[in-house]
Amino acid sequence: MDIIKWGTAAVLVAAFTGALLVRDNPTVSATEVALPAICGDIHADHGGSSMQAHIDMMAADAGDAHAALLQTMEPMHSDMMRGMTAEDFEVAFVCSMIPHHQGAIKMAQVAQQYGTEPWVMMMAQEIIATQELEVREMQGWLARKE
To answer: What was the pLDDT predicted at 35?
Structure first.
C-alpha cells in the first residue's frame, strides 16, 4: 500500500512541476505551431471536410464538454494524415506524431475546462506538460532536417 501512496505522490509532484514549467514558459503553445513544409502537401485533401461534418453532427447531440472534446479530433486527423505524405519515413513518423501530441494537449485542455475529478485534472496537466515538451523536441528535430 505504501508503494501506491509513494507512486501517487510522485505523479502529483511530476504534474505540479510540469504545470509550473508550462505556466512559466512564455513561448507560444506547442499546439499553435503549424507543421513545416517538410511534412507534406498542406493543400492535399486528407478527408478533413467529411470528417468535420461527421464530428459536427455528433457534437450537435452532445453536451458542451463532449462537443468540445469532439472538436479536437479533425485538426489532429488532417495534420496526422498530411504528415504521412512526407517522403522520408522517419520524417513522416515525426510529422504525424506532432499533431497526435497536439491533439492530446487540446483534449487535456478540454478535460481541464470541463473536468471535476482531481485525478483527471492532474492527468490532464501532466499530459499538457509532457506532450508540449515532446512536440518542441520533434519540431526541433524537423528543423534540423530541413
So the answer is: 87
C-alpha span between 79 and 32 (Å, rounded): 13
Q: Measure the CA angle with vertex 132, ends 126 and 137; round to 5°.
A: 130
The three three-digit cell numbers of residue 50, written as one number: 467529411
Q: Which residue has the cell 487540446?
A: 106
What's the pLDDT score for residue 1? 58
pLDDT digits (tens, 9 = 90+) for 36-59: 888 887 776 666 667 777 777 777
Contact 123, 130 (CB under 8 A): no
Dist. CA 98–CA 35, nearest whole Å: 8
